[in-house]
Amino acid sequence: LKFAMFMLAxxxxxxxxxxxxxxxxxxxxxxxxxxSLWDGANSxxxxxxWFTAKVWAFLFGYFWLRATLPRLxxxxxxxxxxxxxxxISLVWIAIVATTRSLRNDGHAALATGLxxxxxxxxxxxxxxxxxxxxxxxxxxxxxQAVNTGVFPAPPLPPAxxxxxx
Length: 165
Fold this sequence. Notes:
single chain; 165 residues; mainly alpha; 5 helices
């Protein structure tokens, strides 16, 4: 029973994450967009059905990704989080806060949308330029050090001649 609980804990965690993602990002118990136009879509037992269907859909995507993608090491996940996801989320928070404050000051939605899109485009160009400059500075393996085999290897030292005894 201990082993079964240990193995099921992973799936309980996946279900919990799916329920939280449904609540925070997929509208929770509300009906999906085209169905929400119907007056009775969010009354009675329908909200429970919508929530359960969204959790199952998220779980299906979760299982599908886990089964098809290769497993990543913990250090790769940490590098993804610290080097990519956190900077992107901080920039996104700054863009959203700036857009909201401009909208609250009375600026037009088109102007703030263009400002946000322009900021994202400029940041993408800066990141691409930074990557190309960084790629040029990568140390290259000298041509004479490359062996004809599969793996690069340094050249062998000259062979010593044996003295005739």
